[in-house]
Amino acid sequence: MIAILLIAAVLRFYDLNLVPLHHDEGVNGNFLVKLVREGAYQYDPENYHGPTLYYFAAWFPWLTRLLFGVAARDHYGLTTITIRCVPALFGLATIGLVFPLRRRLGTIATLSAALMLAVSPGAVYLSRYFIHETQFAFFTLGIVVAGLRFYDTRNPTWLVLASASAALLFATKETAMISMGVLLIAFGLTHVYRRFFRNVLAQSSGKSRRPMPQKSAFRTFLDEFGKTNLAISAAIAIAVFLFLNILFYSSFFRNSQGIFDALKTFQIWTKTGQTAHVQPLLTYFRWLFRQESPLLLLGVIGAFLVVLKPKNSLALFSALWAFGLIAAYSLIPYKTPWLVLNFIPPLALIAGYVVQQIWELERGQIRMVAMVLFIAVAVSTYQTIDLNFINYDNDDTYYVYVYAHTRRGTLDLVRNIEQIANEREGKQTGITIVSPDYWPLPWYLRDYKRTAYFGQMAPSTEALIIAKDSQKAEIEANFGELYRQVPSNDANGSFELRPGVRLLLYLRRNRL
Questions:
Q1: What does the alpha-carbon distance between residue 126 and residue 131 come to, in Å, rounded to a whole number?
Q2: pTM given for the model
Q3: Is the confidence at residue 132, as pLDDT, over 70?
Q4: 483 phi and psi, to 5 degrees?
Q5: What span, in angstroms and rounded, lies between the C-alpha atoms of 48 and 174?
Q6: How far apart are CA 479 and CA 202, in angstroms?
Q7: Cα torsion 170, 189, 192, 154: sign
Q8: Which residue has the higher pLDDT, 65 or 149?
Q9: What single-letter DSSP state applies at residue 435?
Q10: In which element (H, E) is residue 114 found?
């Protein structure tokens, strides 16, 4: 277990500065800067999902500032590493949540599932991304783990924790409605299918045409726990759910409108789901096959095994959960690679179940298990290293998680700006940005007090101007010989922001 967590930690935390921030990371970072520096955040249902990411992330710069004082380059403890520590920690914690499932899934299955989740290309890539998905996956699995612990121990604390996880899930992203719906359907189908399968098996064995009625698992649980205790526990759980949602959406009771906007968001994102990022029906299966093939193939095999012989309720639930989510998200026209992370934890659980079944074979079990697990882990590990540390900005169709990502050349642009600023007025160096495309530059230029974002051609007397390559003629016409272009290492002298977007950097020839 420790070795698996160590592997996962190295893959998630090593060189978090390596990959330039994605457009969405830059926007999220901008919200975080305002929260940390001004203590201000208001939930907007039309922008970038729920508030939990920002409030959890704010603790890192606050804690960094408390422990280490005023940093030399950042007076608020805001760095790429500190903000990306949040998804990295949640990614690591998601793997930790797999281990409590050992009693129900099996030791070999649990260890295999945790290992495959630890080295999953998508799970690692998105754990190094300052977006909501890794938290979302953690809270979803948290609901399952806490719910099972409540059923097994009859301890109402676990029900409250399950409710808290559900509340934080809804406060993280509006797609919580989809995930909760699939979880409930998978739970119901698991219960119904196992009872149906037992009845069919009893009739086919000829033991009894009229089997003696037996209490359902829920009835047994209810008799042991007590209706009154369940009612009280459920009431507390509901209160916790409402309190946490109100707490986060109201910006800790400073923005009551956020509570109503939390409901409004479902209407807004329902429309968005029909018009933005539209992809074909089978897109998720194609993406999974390209970069998560071990999980997909073992998941399909495990689903067939557990449907044919549903002796393990958690394995059956995981299969219904995994492929129910894939089906639900596939039916929605809106499709993005980061949504694939929702499928990875349940696929890992059912893949681990396959390894457990091989382990339980009578002959050749150790050799077979080692071979299957080695191949699955080796393929995923190779893809993970290739994706996360080599081709992290390669928009080739094979690298499905690289979705309109910021090019590494953007960091060259930032380094040029820093070098010029050090020779001029430091953080007081003026920067005029006339390019209509500039995210995630606001994150990298957050400490430059005289930075203006016009998004179109505008007059300027500042030391630096950043323009899009298509604006070159306008720059020359408007500023003539006042500015000279600062070339990049690229052949055409521009800095590639992301596929199809190139920026030009201009330096004023004289100081003002």
A1: 8
A2: 0.92
A3: yes
A4: -125, 150
A5: 10
A6: 86
A7: negative
A8: 149
A9: -
A10: helix 107-118
* Numbers of helices and strands, H then E, in the chain: 21, 6
Mean pLDDT of 443-472: 94
The two three-digit tokens of residue 382, written as one number? 């190779």
> If DSSP codes are grouped into helix, strand and coil, which group holds residue 250?
coil
Residue linked to tokens 């390209």: 290
Can you tell me which residue has the tokens 């070339």?
A: 487
**DSSP string for 367-421:** HHHHHHHHHHHHHHHHHHHHHHHTSTT--STT-TT--SPPPTHHHHHHHHHHHHH
**Chain-centre distance for alpha carbon 426:** 36
Average pLDDT of the segment spanning 232-237: 93
Q: Where are the domains of the chain?
A: 2-389, 409-508
pLDDT higher than threshold 90 for residue 51: yes
Cα 111 from chain centre: 22
Question: What is the rounded radius of gyration, in angstroms, for the C-alpha atoms of the chain?
Answer: 26
Q: Residues near 323 by Cβ (< 8 Å), separated by ≥ 6?
A: 299, 303
| pLDDT(298) > 80 | yes
431: β partners: 451, 464
Residue with tokens 């996880």: 165
